Amino acid sequence: MIIEQYSLDSEHAATLCKTANQYASDHNLRICCWVLDPHGNPLAMQRHNQAALASTEIARKKAWTAVSFKIPTDQWEQRLKKQPHLLNNLMNQDGIAMFGGGFPIFHNDQLIGAIGVSGASEQQDVDCAQHALNTIVLS
């Protein structure tokens, strides 16, 4: 059996990072943005010079979490609020980030990658990533 799977290409990934970073610049924010393929491999990364050093790794973790579980990272708390033991255990796993700023990217209902943004407030990270996703044209 052969499985056909699609992926975001590196050109669109770079555009997503550039768009998120431009939105951040326009709002006087300093962020890092990662875009991963559907297997969690890096496609693009862009970081403002003045972004916090930790934002680089946090943004990658947000993207990886989003692509791994196929849900936005800001949904974890609500989904697991009745299962605090599970939420706590997942939050303590290396490589997982369960707060806003990570989004899976779908095209025709198929996962094609993920974006992760970090460096500003949680809501600002979400806004930067969402702006990039809202402006990208996939064909």
Automatic annotation (TrEMBL):
InterPro entries on file: GlcG_carb_metab_protein (IPR052517), PduO/GlcC-like (IPR005624), PduO/GlcC-like_sf (IPR038084)
Tree of life domain: Bacteria
Pfam families documented for this protein: HbpS-like (PF03928)
PANTHER family in alphabetical order: PROTEIN GLCG, SLR1406 PROTEIN
Protein name, as recorded: Heme-binding protein
Source organism per UniProt: Amphritea balenae
